[in-house]
Amino acid sequence: MQNQPPVNLKGIAWSAMQQYGFVPAFPPPVLREVGALAAGAFPETPGDPLDLRALLWSSIDNHDSLDLDQIEVCEEGPGGEIRVRVAIADVDSRVPKDSATDRYAARNGTSVYTGVTTFPMLPDRLSADLTSLLPGRDRMAIVIEYTVLPDGRTRPSDIYRAIVANHAKLVYEEVGAWLEGSGPVPRTVAEIPGLAGQVLLQHEAAMRMKKRRTEQGALALETIEAEPVVAGGRVLGLAVQEQNLARCLIEEFMVAANGSITAFLNGAGLPMIHRIVRTPKNWAGIVREAADRGEILPDRPDAEALTRFLIRQKAADPDRFPDLSLTVVKLMGAGEYVAFRPGDEPIGHFALAVTDYTHGTAPNRRYVDIIIQRLIKSVIDGDECPYTCEELDDLAARLTDREKASQKVERFVRKAAAAVLLREQIGETFAAFVTGASEKGTYVRLIDPPAEGKVVIGEQGLRVGQRVRVRLLATDPYNGFIDFARTG
Predict the structure, then answer these.
(1) Judging by DSSP bridges, how do beta strands 59-61 and 169-171 pair with one another?
(2) What is the pTM of this model?
(3) Where does 277-385 show beta strands of DSSP type E?
(4) In terms of domains, do 15 and 158 share one?
(5) What SS3 class is residue 470?
(6) Ramachandran sector of residue 273 (left: φ over 0; alpha: ψ -120 to 50; beta: rest)
(7) For all residues of the chain together, what is the average pLDDT?
(8) Cα 59 to the center of its chain, rounded Å
(9) What are the residues whose beta carbons fall under 8 Å from the beta carbon of 409, sequence distance 6 or more?
(10) 451 contacts 266 by C-beta, under 8 angstroms
(11) What are phi and psi of 145, to 5 degrees?
C-alpha cells in the first residue's frame, strides 16, 4: 500500500498527553514568569556557597540532551578510597514553591519523552538554559559528597551549596565504547588535560559500587525500549538504547547520591519521599518462570538468588533475555513514591537492593526531585521543613500516578511510530518472540525492527519466550495497533 497519507505523529503525541491527564503546553502565566527571569545572575542564597568551578566537572548524557541535571568529579583518597562529588542543578532557586511554574510542574510531574517530541516539565529557558549544567556556564548547585571504599561500600559525607562549572558534556555511546575497548578516546576527553584520568577514576568507582550491589542482590534486568528515529516527519526506524559502561557509571553514581540524600535527611529528622519497589507479591510467578527454564528459586523472595538466575540466563540466551527481564518487571510490580516519616520502617527498593532511596538527582525532569531539593536546602539553611507530612502523602500519590501516566503516553506513541514504520509492509513475514500470553491477548516483538504487536490469528498455544514467524496483517497508527497472524 504505497503513497498513504502522512500520519501526524506529533498530533498523536499531543492527544495522548491530554488523554492521560497532562497539560501539553505551558500556560501564559508560566511563560511570563519564566520570561521575566534575569539571565546569568545568581539568585540570592543564604550563606556563602563554595566556589568549586576549578574542579574538573563533567557530564555524560545523550548527544542531544540539554536539560543537564548533574555533573560529577572524583579524587583519590587514602587507602584506595575514592571521593565522589555529584553536583545537582539548583532548580528550586529559579522555581519558587507555589509559583505558576511550580504549580504547572507539580501538575504534570515529569518530562515526557515520546521519541517524536518531548514535553518538558519546565520551559526550555529553564531546563535547557538557566537551570541546566551546560558546559562553560557558572551555575548554582547542590553538591552531594560520598566516599567509595575499596570493597564498593559507600560512606555518605556532606551536602552543601556550591558554584560549579561543567568542563565537558560527554556522550553515553562515545564514552561507553571507549571504556569497553571498542572505540577511541572521545575527542573532548582527549582534548581536555586530565579528563581521561578523571573519567577512568569515575569508572573505577562505579565498577566497585556495581559489584557490591550485585552481590547484595541488585537485579540485572535489561528490557528493550525501542525509540522511533524520526527525521523530516518520517519514521526511519526503531533504535534500541543499549546499556553500556557509561550508562552504568551514571546509574551507580546516582544510586549512591540518592542514598546519601536519604541519610542526610534522616540525620536531620525530616520527612521525605522515598522511591520504592516493593518485595514482589507475585514471587510465585517469578519462580514459575525460572522453573520453565530448568532453574529453582527459593519459595520466599530472594533478590540475590534472582540476580544469580538472571545473570545465568543472560549468558545462556542473550537474545531472549530482554523479554525475560520484562516478564520479571511485570511480576515484580512498578516502582512508586511513598511519604516517609522519621521513625518509619523503610520499605526499600527490591530491584536496586537498597533500603533508603529517593529521587533527588534530576530536578529539571522530575518534580519529586524538586521537592527533595527543597527539603535538603531547608536543612542546609536551618529553615523550617517546607512540607507537612500530609502534603508529602498527597504529592507521593500524585507523582506515582503521573509517572505511570507518562509511561503510558511514551508506550502509546512508540506503538504509533512503529505502526507508521510498518504500514508499507503489510503481508510480509517476520521473525519474532512471544512477549505476552494471557486472556488479554498474545503479543510478540519482532526481531527487526523491534516493534511489538498482537497476534490475532493462530495465537493458540503460544507461550512467552517462544520464537515464531508472523505475517503482518494491519497497522493503525492512531490507535497504536499492529496485528499479526502466526505463520509457523
Answers:
(1) parallel
(2) 0.92
(3) 336-340
(4) yes
(5) strand
(6) beta
(7) 92
(8) 16
(9) 13, 16, 17, 20, 22, 112, 114
(10) no
(11) -110, 140
In this model, does residue 41 exceed pLDDT 70? no
Report pLDDT digits (tens) over 109-127. 999 999 899 999 999 999 9
* C-alpha–C-alpha distance, residues 299 and 188, integer Å: 51
68: cell is 543537564
pLDDT classification of 186: cutoffs 50, 70, 90? very high
Instruction: Point out the domain boundary residue: 418, 444, 474.
Output: 418
Amino acid identity at 73: V
Q: Is residue 223's pLDDT more than 90?
A: no
- DSSP at 143: E
Q: Which of 360, 387, 418 is the last residue before a domain boundary?
A: 418
User: Which runs of consecutive H residues, i.e. helices, occur in 47-162?
Assistant: 100-108, 124-125
pLDDT in tens, 250-263: 999 999 999 999 99
CB-CB neighbours of 29 under 10 Å: 13
Instruction: Give the amino acid at 468.
Output: V
**Are 431 and 439 spatial neighbours (Cβ–Cβ below 8 Å)?**
no
Residue 306 lies in a domain: yes
CA–CA gap between residue 264 and residue 219 (Å, rounded) = 26
326 and 348 share one domain: no
Count, residues in the chain: 488
Q: Are residues 160 and 258 in the same domain?
A: yes
d(CA 289, CA 188) in angstroms, rounded, equals 45
